[in-house]
Amino acid sequence: MNLEKPYIISVYAILRNEKGEFLLLRRSENSHSNPGKWDLPGGKLGQEETLGEAVAREVWEETGISIVPGEIAGYVTFELPEKKVIAIVYNEGYVIADVKLSYEHTEYAWISLDNILEMKTLPAYFRDFFKRFITESKKSSEPPI
Amino acid sequence: MNLEKPYIISVYAILRNEKGEFLLLRRSENSHSNPGKWDLPGGKLGQEETLGEAVAREVWEETGISIVPGEIAGYVTFELPEKKVIAIVYNEGYVIADVKLSYEHTEYAWISLDNILEMKTLPAYFRDFFKRFITESKKSSEPPI
What is the pTM of this model? Predict the structure, then answer.
């Protein structure tokens, strides 16, 4: 088979501060994809890596924060000009740490969920992910029947 | 967060014979999930494994066929009673090999695509996957504009 656009696997992490706000990073203006847009920490899975190793490496490279890979919170899929991406999103829970950006991002912010859902510069696949994430978190915090 | 149903990652493989038929396995009647239903070779990703290692191990365990992990053909997602599954499907291309089943399956068959799309005992998420797979294969075999 010779699909024109190969699939690749990426990993992303959601991290929250003590107020429950989520960490987002703004992509550099000369990024290959989504320049200047907001983003989650994360990136492409290496051939020789486990998913957990990849998410810890990407979070470390892009934020200077050390994590122990948490639970999987869900997935998003999207298309870039040359590939289709299946992205596994880890829930890293709450972190207390300084953020040290890499060259890939120009800015970071801790943003409340309500504000995330209003953001025009966050790709739609991540906005939709946060909507689902909240629905599922609410469901699971309801008392068992 | 305490989602009631955790996500797990699985890997599956599509393998074809020289006629282009796909290898399906029938799950044992005492399987925990989907007993007696048809299935693709594959299973759960181990914590310490890469995706490629996992798909090669599962195919070997369930069919006795050695593969070198191929391209990713896509993904399926589904829910089981206790978990939600994100399954990455590898395209292993054409194989010439005898199939040796494990205890997990009771039968195997090489089945043409037309027949796969008619099968009532293949879970809908795999049937839908094959539909998408075909659409994408056709697109990519069209001459470039």
Answer: 0.86
Give the pLDDT score at B144: 46
Mean pLDDT over all residues of chain A? 90
Contact call for B1 and A77, based on CB within 8 A? no
Give the residues across from A94 on adjacent strands.
Answer: A16
Nearest CB among A1, A49, A88 relative to B50 is that of: A49
Q: Are A8 and B71 in contact, with CB atoms under 8 Å apart?
A: no
B83 contact partners, CB below 8 Å, separation of at least 6:
B5, B6, B7, B8
Residue type present at position B67:
I
Contact call for B136 and A3, based on CB within 8 A: yes
Q: What gap in Å lies between CA B94 and CA B83, rounded to an integer?
A: 32
Pair of tokens at residue A138:
């609410």
Q: Are strands B71-79 and B84-94 parallel, antiparallel or unpaired?
A: antiparallel
In chain A, which residue's Cα lies nearest the Cα of B73?
A7
Query: At A54, is the secondary structure helix, strand, or coil?
Result: helix
**Min Cα separation B86/chain A (Å):** 8
| Amino acid A93: pLDDT | 86
- In which residue ranges of chain B is pLDDT below 70? 1-3, 137-145
